[in-house]
Amino acid sequence: VVVCESLLCPQPFRDSLADVLFNHFQIASLLLMPTQVFSLLPLGVETGLVVDCGASETSVIGVYRGQPVLRSLTTTPTGGQSLHRALEARVLEYGRAWVGSKLQALSAVMG
């Protein structure tokens, strides 16, 4: 079984997961692989800069020869939700829609 997990995943969770997989499901082997390393595999490279944009935060980390460089990890509380809100605000502010034969502000149409 291959589990892609965050570098920041707490050790007690990993231990519990392994315990359940080995003892309850009786798996033969387990590989816990950081998603940051796993994301480089389809590219066929072991070294790269990985940008992970999630819903609530974005993280950037360097990976060198298949090993995450923890001291390079940088996170920001800006993620997809923030981007969605910013785009939505711009669309409502500047967007226009045809209502019948009249062009109106999108905020007035949706509002």
Q: In DSSP terms, counting alpha (H) and pi (I) runs of 4 or more, how many helices?
A: 4
- Rg is 22 Å
Largest sheet: 3 strands, antiparallel
Q: Alpha-carbon distance between the termini?
A: 50 Å
**Helix share of residues?**
25-40%
Range of strand content: 35-45%
Would you report the number of β strands?
A: 7
Shape: elongated
Instruction: Give the integer mean of the pLDDT values.
Output: 93
Order of helices and strands: EHEHEEEHEEH
Which structural class best describes the helix and strand composition? alpha+beta
Low-pLDDT regions: none
The side-by-side strand order for the widest beta sheet comes to 3-4-5
Short description:
Helices cover 34% and strands 35% of the residues. It contains four helices and seven strands.
Descriptive overview:
There is one protein chain. This protein has 111 residues and is α+β, with helices and mostly antiparallel strands. The protein contains four helices and seven strands; from the N terminus they run βαβαβββαββα. The chain has helices spanning 11-24, 35-38, 80-94, 106-110; strands spanning 2-5, 31-34, 48-53, 58-64, 67-76, 96-99, 102-105. It is elongated.
